[in-house]
């Protein structure tokens, strides 16, 4: 009996030591929130695919033959890079012709400009000649007046018998010669003045009035100046025609209108194409838009600029911020759907046209729903996730189906939770099913 008592004491002491070595820990404290219904944006689900922002059909501006092709399907091309060259013999021949026409017209302008210069010098020379003739006629007039005076004196002396008839006849002959010389000088002066358009007798200001001289020069150059103006006009017409032909010839080298990718090529080298024929189809290099459809009954709830969230399963499970860029004007008569074009706010270089996409469009109308902070959901991608629910101070994992409500980081609960449920905020990897915890309540705006 004594032995049994000693063994019992040993066992009690051993258990007491074990209890002292492993004390019982208090429950962990976790942040929780109690779910409740609240007003939120009314999401409109939509499905579709990515489409390029621009699909450009590159066409031939004129008929011709495909001389060279510089791009194939799948190539990335830069704006203004030549992607195909056409050949057109008529345009090339016309280019050579207009080059000759411009050269001839420019030569005509140079010739008439030279004629103007020569004519101007000739006019000044004739004006100087006219001044000389005016001086000569003035001198001849004085000589004639002197000869006339000498003849009159000789006539008086002849009548009184102081000189002979022969002497008188010599004075009369000298007066006649002087008169003829004067008349000849005046005649030359009058003719040259008429040719130059100067009034006769010549005005005294002809020698020092620059304005008058410039006017005379202008009048005398009127014809050749008109010829020069005509030559210049013909040169301008020829140059305009040349520029038009050069522009048409330059259009034979067709360039990419934007940075983008070649998605279809419709021609091969050597083929003939008509004006307006499609050569290539390009997609611009910007991040594609999302083309979705909604039922026509929901069109009164959407408008351009309205926010949306877009998921692209081929790229990521996350939802990306977008907005309605354009609302289609015509509904499909068979399905009753209306197209919406959504534009992603952040560039995404990895997405490609044709990828499947899903969207949640947030209407301006408010509706009541059960929402949960994003931090309470583990792996919400794809619309499903897991949350920790607190039931009688113990944890229970629960699967939920959710969708984002907007840019505030909250989700609307479709399945798995009810109003009044208490869920744990933030992902606590160490939590275990059935674990007892201490709840610290937070605002539902967390």
Percentage of β-strand residues: 25-35%
Gross morphology: rod-shaped
Mean pLDDT: 86
In whole angstroms, how far apart are the ends? Answer: 67 Å
Look at the helices and sheets and give the structural class. Answer: alpha+beta
Widest sheet: strand ordering? 2-11-14-13-12-15
Helix content: 25-40%
**Largest sheet, strands/sense/barrel:** 6 strands, antiparallel, barrel
Give start-end ranges of low-pLDDT stretches: none
Over all CA atoms, what is the radius of gyration?
54 Å
Number of strands: 20
The number of helical runs is: 5
Order of helices and strands: HEEEEEEHHHHEEEEEEEEEEEEEE
Spell out the blueprint of helices and strands.
Layout: H1 2-21, E1 28-34, E2 37-51, E3 55-59, E4 64-69, E5 76-77, E6 82-87, H2 89-159, H3 165-196, H4 210-220, H5 222-250, E7 253-255, E8 260-265, E9 272-273, E10 278-284, E11 289-295, E12 307-311, E13 319-327, E14 337-344, E15 356-373, E16 384-391, E17 394-404, E18 410-415, E19 422-424, E20 437-441
Parallel strand pairs: 1-20
Antiparallel strand pairs: 1-19, 2-11, 2-15, 3-10, 4-6, 4-9, 5-8, 6-7, 8-10, 11-14, 12-13, 12-15, 13-14, 15-18, 16-17, 17-18
Helix pairs in contact: 2-3, 2-5
Q: How would you describe what is shown here?
A:
The protein has 446 residues and is α+β, with helices and mostly antiparallel strands. Helix content is 37%, strand content 31%. The chain has helices spanning 2-21, 89-159, 165-196, 210-220, 222-250, and strands at residues 28-34, 37-51, 55-59, 64-69, 76-77, 82-87, 253-255, 260-265, 272-273, 278-284, 289-295, 307-311, 319-327, 337-344, 356-373, 384-391, 394-404, 410-415, 422-424, 437-441. 22% of the residues are buried. The model has no long low-confidence stretch (mean pLDDT 86).
